[in-house]
Amino acid sequence: MNRRLIIVLIILDLIWSTAALIYDYPVIIQTPIYYWPFLIVCPVFPFLLTLVWSQIYRDKTPNNYLLAFAAIPSVIYLTASLIYYPTWMILNTFDWYALGQIFWVAFYGIQAFYLLMKFSYTKTALWLAGAFLIISLTVQFKTKTLGFQDFTNFSDSLLLIEYLIMVIAAILLPILISNRTNKSDNKLLRQ
Fold first, then answer.
1. Domain extents for the chain?
2. Could you tell me if 97 and 149 are in contact, meaning their C-beta atoms sit under 8 angstroms apart?
3. Which listed site, 27, 130, 138, 154, has its alpha carbon 20 to 30 Å from 60?
């Protein structure tokens, strides 16, 4: 991959992470600290991607756990944004901010998808990232925060459907990636 592009991604991911932290800060400080590891979404994943890209830039193979924890949730939150924001706009009204949020999450979700396809992962790293995400989603669902989103006009049933879609995706994605990883590892062994 082009080293200049990697530098641009590192800088943009840092900007994304900082901007999200500034934007979410008023809500974060009102949230009990013991929920932070499970509720803070947008500032964390671009920062983790910054760490991954930094390792790649230095010609190091990224840490498998860092990769999994950066990539799996980012792809799931991209999927969630493609469900949540259009639904929110249908229930409320078209909103440029909501539309922009899709692109905001897509920026780091697409990077994560690329990383999922580019690297092999251990099953342990994939399952730990998936399990953490499921716990995180459950805490978010129980506290009705789901990434500090606005749930105006959302019924409890609709929230449950979105939660279930995200949990199913969090279960399926590690399975799909581990199957892809096993097949590519088997091809390498045959060569």
1. 3-190
2. no
3. 130
The CA distance from 43 to 15, in Å, is 10
What are the phi and psi torsion angles at 121 (to 5°)?
A: -130, 150
> Per the structure block, which two tokens stand in for 109?
């979700």
Q: Averaged over 27-32, what is the pLDDT?
A: 84
Is there a contact between 28 and 51 (Cβ–Cβ < 8 Å)? no
Q: Give, as one character, the DSSP assignment of residue 92.
A: S
Please determine, for residue 114, whether its predicted confidence score (pLDDT) is greater than 90: yes
Q: Whole-prediction pTM value?
A: 0.86
Band the pLDDT of 186: cuts 50, 70, 90: very low
Token pair for 22: 């500034």
CA distance 187 to 159: 42
